[in-house]
Specification:
InterPro entries: EME1/EME2_C, ERCC4_domain, Mms4/EME1/EME2, XPF_nuclease_EME1_ascomycetes. Pfam families: EME1-MUS81_C, ERCC4. It is a single chain. The chain has 335 residues and is of the alpha/beta class. The protein has two domains: 191 residues, Rossmann fold, CATH 3.40.50.10130; 79 residues, Crossover junction endonuclease EME1, DNA-binding domain (DNA polymerase, domain 1), CATH 1.10.150. Helix 3 packs across helix 8, helix 5 crosses helix 7 and helix 9 packs across helix 10.
């Protein structure tokens, strides 16, 4: 039972089997909702339809049969063998472009009211906002603006011709000559989305079309399902720093923490400079930075078991070690 509880859930085939996707009724009855339900059921996720009056489309829950124990660094099965259902800390709002435009036109007060309503409905959840078709909207808006400009130019030319001929060719203004009544500009929308990101901590997920929207929703569900297991994997990879048996061994291991500094290279440097202070004094004795960078390049390195040729620390490693121990620039990138 303990082994099963600690088997990390990274399999693409089974990762969604413990997930419950709570789907709003309005979204579930849409074409996208129907397609998403098919995709999720194929991967054995449970779907629960709930009425949120269209406030947000998706939220997630998970069935747990164990809980994480920090002291033992492992998942422990529940003593009664029963599963627990717990809320995940995310909700997803889906807005088509026309709905997003309506929201943007309400200004910052409207954006704040919208976000606060979501937070009141689902406290302590992270809001993700998925918008579909923004790039298509921007493209159509540019086309409409260009067409409107061309119509205005042609209209002015027509009126000039009428004025020059005594008015006999005057035509009635058509609907195409009237202002097109376009929605908010790209700058308006991006300013509003930036405001939501920074002021209301909303995560943005833009998509281009219906197919991409469904793919993203499935992928997000899978990522939420895998999140706790990935956290455990990261913790297990980090581990504590290695400690040495004595000062000399600690100095040797300290050198090996430098990328690509092998035990043989570390041993060569530690043999020539038995303490960090010795290396530091040697660097200080050099007149130029170039001399310091090249100082270790010609140190002999113990031959490897598969190579009979003599080796040295080499220029690149010498420069890297020098940079690690002498640079005072906190933003310097060491490669």
């Amino acid at each position: 039972m303990l082994e099963k509880a600690n088997r990390l859930g990274n399999s693409r085939e089974t990762v969604l089997t413990d997930m419950i996707v709570d789907m709003d009724t309005v979204f579930a009855e849409s074409t996208r909702g129907t397609l998403l339900q098919e995709k999720l059921r194929e991967r054995e996720a449970e779907i629960h339809i709930t009425d949120r009056q269209g406030l947000y489309a998706l939220s997630w829950r998970r069935r747990w049969e164990s809980e994480w124990n920090d002291e033992l660094d492992a998942f422990l099965p529940y003593p009664d063998g029963q599963k627990r259902v717990k809320e995940e800390h995310f909700l997803l709002v889906f807005l088509e472009t026309k709905d997003l435009c309506d929201l943007v036109e309400q200004g910052e007060n409207g954006l704040d009211a919208w976000a606060e309503k979501l937070k009141e409905s689902a406290p302590r959840k992270r809001i993700m906002l998925m918008t579909e078709g923004l790039e298509i909207y921007y493209r159509k808006r540019r086309t409409a603006k260009r067409r409107d400009f061309e119509q205005q130019v042609l209209h002015r030319l027509d009126w000039s011709a009428v004025d020059g001929s005594g008015g006999s060719n005057r035509r009635r203004r058509t609907q195409a000559d009237v202002d097109t009544g376009l929605g908010p500009t790209k700058d308006d929308i991006e300013s509003a989305l930036t405001y939501l990101q920074f002021m209301q901590d909303v995560m943005l997920v833009p998509t281009n079309d219906q197919a991409e929207t469904i793919d993203w929703m499935v992928a997000m569900t899978a990522e939420i399902a895998r999140a706790p297991y990935r956290m455990v994997q990261r913790r297990s990879r980090q581990g504590p720093a290695r400690s040495g048996l004595d000062a000399s061994d600690t100095w040797n291991k300290m050198l090996q923490e430098i990328q690509l500094c092998t035990p043989a290279v570390a041993k060569s440097v530690a043999t020539e400079y038995p303490k960090l202070q010795d290396l530091h004094k040697a660097y200080q004795a050099k007149d130029t930075q170039k001399d310091r960078e090249d100082m270790l390049a010609h140190l002999s390195v113990e031959r490897s078991a598969i190579s009979a040729r003599d080796r040295t620390v080499n220029d690149a490693m010498s420069k890297k070690i020098c940079t690690v121990f002498t640079s005072d620039d906190p933003d310097e990138v060491i490669t």
